[in-house]
Every structure is written in structure tokens, then in C-alpha cells.
Amino acid sequence: MAESGGRGSEVLVIFGITGDLARKMTFRALYCLERRLLLQCPVLGVASDDISVEELVNRARKAVVDTGEGLDNKVFDRLANRLSYLHGDVTDPALYAELAKRLGSRRDCLFYLEMPPSLFAPIVESLDKAGLLAHSRVAVEKPFGHDLKSACELNAQLRAVLNEDQIFRVDHFLGKQPVVELEYLRFGNLALAEMWDRHKISQIQITMAENFGVEDRGRFYDGVGALRDVVQNHLLQVLAGVAMEPPVGPSADDLNDKKADVLRAIPALDPDLCVRAQYSGYTDIDGVAKGSQTETFVALRLEIDNWRWAGVPIFLRAGKAMAERVTEVRLFTHRVPALAFLPDRKKAEPNQIVLRIDPDPGLRVQLTALDAGRWRDIHLDSSFMQDLGEPLTPYERILHAGLTGDRQLFAREDNIEETWRVVQPLLDNPGKIHRYETGSWGPEEARSLLRGQHGWHQPWLPTDHRASQ
């Protein structure tokens, strides 16, 4: 196996280019990269559909338009000229012989597997047998297994023919602007850096709420659930970025080493500190088993057992069919001592730092002022779009990083296995499933997790000024 460095790929080969991910995300990302003049190589699509290149181009055009992206015909024509197509069965060796013929002397490729995880190992093994992996990289979409054992097995299968630095594990949350920006906000600003530990922070809340249900994905979702779908990957990866120490250098391993330290310091979940729930009507959806015990909502408490964060309770929640669509990280400071100079000696409300990941990414610092004898919140808000300009979309960042060999935006093997270790007790002992109404903030039982702590706060929405639920 050869080392994979920071080279630019000669060809992007997308397995599954006729699938949902390509339709919803990939074609738009490729178009936007073309518009920014960041796409520098041909794109070869591979799938089982027996279609022409012209049909693929038509699908790509429709996909870009359907995402709401304004279409510049000159830009799209440049993208269309890069596209080619190969159809066949990914379990058939003849497909890889034909692929090698199409690639010719170009052997420095990014193979992007937009395929079911069960096909990752067979495809990679076939690419290796065809002599196509020595100087290439392989990007794989989540899920990376369905529990700790399967994740370890998948990693072992991939590592049998690839070096770790040739494997790019895609978690699109790592490509979101606020998640990328978090490292710079934390360590580039003394005002934040000095507050970021157990001496200043009393509690952390992370919320990922979606205001839509499972819809037409019932069969897929019922075998996954909220814990596997977004907590084990997205939210624990975000938490690692929130809690890590500053990296000692600029490499991807420098960054992932610090994230790994955080994940290793998280004790495995206590099922008694977790709440699972389903929204009303979930079991009526096509593809969902009658009597299903799959959760569409999960809330949990955990801690990080290290010197920076010991004793700080951390609460995560994620759910579908909730009141709003919003993802945020919220940190509460300790209270200041009672203010003796006031007519009525009292303590001010704690300050809060809020990083909104979706929608309208931004940062809020919430302060406290006294107005006519009553405490009042003052918000210092920054909208990243307004202050930093239009960002690359997550899949633009991820595709560009993969093509240029930048591993910063991809999850490393040990970190994936640590996140599965953390959630494994809840997979082994899931406990009772509760109910909640669509359009709510989840079941009452989730609020009981925070008894004696700050309650779940109403997330920061673009026009929202409410304090708590």
C-alpha cells in the first residue's frame, strides 16, 4: 500500500451517481465547485442504470435546478463536459476491468462510494485487484457500521487494502462552516479561550432538531433510529470539536489526535441517563414495522472525564418532527456572586455562548443587564453569512478536500470506534420508548434529565428572543 499525500486527483470516480445523494447533494456541489473554478478534473460516474451520458447530464441539470441553485448555462456546460458514465454491476470483475481501461494511465483517483455500507469492502477489494488503489483515495459515506463490532470489522476490511490516510470517511457535519470555524473561534480569541473550561462553564447543551418526520424513508430509518443516525456521528463529532485542546500543528492527525483525546475521556453512556421517544404517527409510515421500538428522538446526559471538563454536565438531544429546524451548541457560564450593591441583593443570570450551526449559522454571546429592577438579556449576535460572506456548502468543502487530499474534514478510524464505544450500552440496553407530539420539543421525560440544572433552552432562531421552554 502506498502513502497518499496532498496531491490533486486526476479523476473523480463516483460510484452510485444515479442515487439519491447525487441527486440531492453531489451534483449541486460539483456545479458550485465548477462555478468557483475549483473543479479541475474529469468526473466518471458508475452505476447499474443503463443510461447514456446525455441522460446523466440531463439528470445533473435537473438535480441542480431542483436544489434551488441558480443555473448559469456556461458553468453547467463546463461541468457537463467533464462528465462520463460507466454502467455495470459493482460485484462483477468485468466492471473494474472496463473502469481500468477508461482510466488509462490515470491512477491517482478519488473513488467516492455513494453506496450502501455493505458494498464498501467488496468495491474496495475489487478496485485493489484491478490495480487502481496504489496512488488513490477512497471516500465512504456514513454509516460506518451499526455498532462497535461492525465498525471495527468494516475498518479492518478497508485497512486490509488501504492505508488510513487513503480512507476519507464522510460526515457532512464536519464540512459545515460553523463546525470548521469553531477551532478558530475558540483558539483565536482570548475572550472565548479563557472561558472554555470547567472553571467558567457550568453546563453544555447540544440540540439537533428537525421539523420534518421520516416521510418516505421509513424502511431505512426504522433500522437506524436517531442515536445511530445523528448522535453517534454528527453530535459526538461536534462535541469533540467543542471540548478538544488546541492542536499542536496544522495536519489532520494533529486535529484528530485532540478529538480522540476527548472521545476517549467520555465514559460509555448510562442507559438510565438517556431518554428515547417516537413521535405520534411514526408507526403508520410505510416501511415502519408495526410496534416498532425505533426512536425518532433521543436525549442523553454525559460527561468528559478530563481536567478541562470534569464535573460539567453535557446534554445532547436530537429529534424529528419537532417544533423547529435548528442545530446549536449552547454553553452556560457559572453565576457571578450575589450583587451586594443592588437594593435587593441578588445573583445575575448566567451568561451564555451559542454557536448556531443551522439555519443561518452564527455566534451569540448572551449577557445580562438590569432594567427597571428586572434582569434582562442582551444579545451580541454575529451572522456568519453577513460577516464572513457566502460559505461553501458542506459537500463542496468535502469534495474539494477529498480531491486535494486534505484529510481535515474527515473522521479518523479511532475516533469512529470511540463514538461507537460511547453509545454501545444504549444499543445493548435501549430501554423504554416514550411518545411525543409532532411539532413539540420532545417528551416530558427529556426535561427530567435536567432536573437541578438549567432546563432545555429554546434554541436561538433567527427572529427568536424567548428564554426557555
From TrEMBL:
Record has Transferase as a keyword: no
Biochemical pathway: Carbohydrate degradation; pentose phosphate pathway; D-ribulose 5-phosphate from D-glucose 6-phosphate (oxidative stage): step 1/3
Glucose-6-phosphate dehydrogenase C-terminal domain span: 184-454
Residue ranges of domain Glucose-6-phosphate dehydrogenase NAD-binding in the record: 13-179
Keyword Hydrolase: no
InterPro entries in alphabetical order: G6P_DH, G6P_DH_AS, G6P_DH_C, G6P_DH_NAD-bd
Top-rank taxon, per record: Bacteria
MF terms (GO), sorted A to Z: glucose-6-phosphate dehydrogenase activity
Chemical reaction(s) catalysed: D-glucose 6-phosphate + NADP(+) = 6-phospho-D-glucono-1,5-lactone + NADPH + H(+)
Residues binding NADP(+): 48, 89-90, 142
Active site (record annotation): 234
Keyword annotations: Carbohydrate metabolism, Glucose metabolism, NADP, Oxidoreductase
EC number from the UniProt entry: 1.1.1.49
Function: Catalyzes the oxidation of glucose 6-phosphate to 6-phosphogluconolactone.
Listed NCBIfam families: PRK12853.1-3, zwf
Protein name (database record): Glucose-6-phosphate 1-dehydrogenase
Annotated source species: Candidatus Mycobacterium methanotrophicum
Phylogenetic lineage: Bacteria, Bacillati, Actinomycetota, Actinomycetes, Mycobacteriales
